[in-house]
Specification:
This protein has 148 residues and is of the alpha/beta class. The protein has a domain at 46-141: Nucleotidyltransferase, domain 5 (2-Layer Sandwich), CATH 3.30.420.270. It is built from three helices and seven strands. It has a five-stranded mixed β-sheet with strand order 4-3-2-5-6, covered by helices on one side. A two-stranded parallel ribbon has the order 1-7. Helix 2 (88-101) runs parallel beside helix 3. The longest helix is centred in the first third of the chain and has 15 residues, at 18-32.
């Protein structure tokens, strides 16, 4: 009597739910990712105290052009990515548009510590003229590692 060999069951990996898992992971990372309106690298001035800036605040960046003492300016309304502006007068125009609709809107100034203070003061004067009343100057706390 001859015995039949039994067939071996093939190993199958169920992939029906892989798409669901991938979409859940994508949604998770989209929800938990922090969005920055400005990623300009500047060397912030040092301070002893630390204050938190407001989420959604308008951002003014005064950075040093690489290899020179010339300043470059960037502006963001806090909702969109920052873009280059040419002069402090342009910052006045942008800030005026925001303060006209939202007079108490917070503003953050991110200025390079190696620039002349006169450049920063000129921007602060323009913001004051535009009606900005809620202003935070970004600084690096003494003893904290790295500059951003």
């Amino acid at each position: 009597m001859r015995l039949e060999r039994s067939r071996r069951a093939e190993a199958i990996i169920p992939t029906a739910s892989m798409a669901d898992i991938a979409f859940l992971l994508i949604i998770f990372f989209m929800v938990t990712t922090a969005y920055e309106v400005d990623r300009t690298q500047v060397r912030l001035p040092l301070s002893h105290t630390r204050a938190e800036s407001h989420k959604g605040a308008a951002v003014v960046v005064i950075a040093r052009e690489p290899g020179s003492a010339v300043a470059s300016y960037r502006f963001s309304d806090g909702r969109r990515t920052s873009r280059a502006v040419l002069t402090p007068s342009d910052i006045y125009l942008e800030a005026s548009r925001i303060t006209y609709g939202e007079p108490g809107r917070p503003f953050v100034v991110k200025a390079d510590a190696t620039l002349r203070y006169g450049l920063v003061e000129e921007v602060l004067d323009q913001l004051r003229a535009a009606g900005v009343v809620n202003l935070v100057l970004l600084t690096q706390q003494k003893g904290a590692e790295g500059h951003s």
